[in-house]
């Protein structure tokens, strides 16, 4: 059983998706953590934001301190209970400035480190194209 879990985790970690969103719409960036261990934290980030993040959810609370200002009041988890490992991000009112590569990381079980679960590359064409 351990071997199967490990292979599944490796598969999930390498998962990369590409999506296209239109300005003004709400979009869900999907990400799934391994099942069976409690998820202690979820962090969504984008490489070009430096030390600011898109969303950090820890101990059943959102952590606003280092959230990038452009994402305030525009992001949420699809399921705050994170049933079945669902740690997908909802991004509201997309703009062309939201285009980029998003990374989904989680802390599960007794681990102390954030493990990458997947990346989503989102393109947002200018309105009218």
UniProtKB/TrEMBL annotation:
Membrane-protein topology: Single-pass type I membrane protein
Subcellular location: Cell membrane
InterPro entries: Ig-like_dom, Ig-like_dom_sf, Ig-like_fold, Ig_sub, Ig_sub2, Ig_V-set, T-cell_Activation_Regulation
SMART domains: IG (SM00409), IGc2 (SM00408), IGv (SM00406)
Main subcellular location of this protein, as a coarse class: membrane
Coiled-coil intervals, chain numbering: none
The UniProt record lists the keyword Mitochondrion: no
PROSITE patterns the UniProt entry points to: IG_LIKE (PS50835)
Taxonomy, superkingdom: Eukaryota
A single GO BP: cellular response to lipopolysaccharide
Gene Ontology CC: external side of plasma membrane
Keywords tagged on the record: Cell membrane, Disulfide bond, Glycoprotein, Immunoglobulin domain, Membrane, Receptor, Signal, Transmembrane, Transmembrane helix
All residue ranges annotated as the Ig-like domain in the record: 1-115
Record PANTHER family: PROGRAMMED CELL DEATH 1 LIGAND 1 (PTHR25466:SF3), T-LYMPHOCYTE ACTIVATION ANTIGEN (PTHR25466)
Name recorded for this polypeptide: Ig-like domain-containing protein
């Amino acid at each position: 059983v351990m071997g199967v879990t490990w292979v599944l985790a490796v598969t999930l970690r390498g998962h990369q998706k590409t999506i296209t969103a239109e300005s003004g719409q709400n979009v869900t960036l999907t990400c799934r953590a391994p099942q069976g261990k409690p998820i202690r934290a979820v962090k969504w980030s984008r490489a070009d934001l430096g030390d600011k993040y898109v969303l950090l959810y820890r101990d059943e609370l959102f952590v606003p301190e280092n959230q990038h200002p452009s994402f305030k009041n525009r992001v949420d988890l699809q399921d705050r209970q994170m049933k079945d490992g669902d740690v997908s991000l909802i991004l509201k009112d997309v703009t062309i400035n939201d285009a980029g590569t998003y990374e989904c990381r989680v802390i599960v079980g007794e681990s102390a480190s954030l493990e990458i679960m997947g990346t989503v590359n989102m393109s947002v064409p200018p309105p009218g194209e």
